[in-house]
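hey so u asked for the seq, here:
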Amino acid sequence: MLSIKTHKQKIDLESKNQIEFFDITDRVQKIVDDSGVREGNAVIFAPHTTMGVVINHNETMLLQDFMRVLYKFAPTDDRYSHDLFELRRASKSDGRSNGHSHCKSLLIGVSQFVPIEKGKLMLGPKQSIFAVELDGARERDVTVNVLGI
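ran it, structure tokens below
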């Protein structure tokens, strides 16, 4: 009888810019390696409301295009109800006007699911896993949960 393995580990990150793409592919693969799972799945999850996780091509000019698109769809200078802190006195805030960051996270999502085959992430040859900071500079973490046999 096969036994299902689970392994959970965090990846710590520190952003320096408002929007920043961290290629975490190698770190996720190392977590898969450490898990001993040969066939299964990895879930990469950002437990933050102003951060996301995406899979795409790691090409410098393309990453600049992604940032431009994110700023276009949720511009920093738009009016966001979330930013009206004086109307939200009952809630705890860190004082950032970051409604735009929450909206960007909504657009890209906070997790990705990647199958594992023969101990390797089943990514295409040009695919990378990115943790995307949308409200930097901050200390962040991403959780990787590996499940399989």
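Residues 5-77+96-148 form a domain with the Jelly Rolls fold (CATH 2.60.120.460). The radius of gyration is 17 Å.
lmk if thats what u needed
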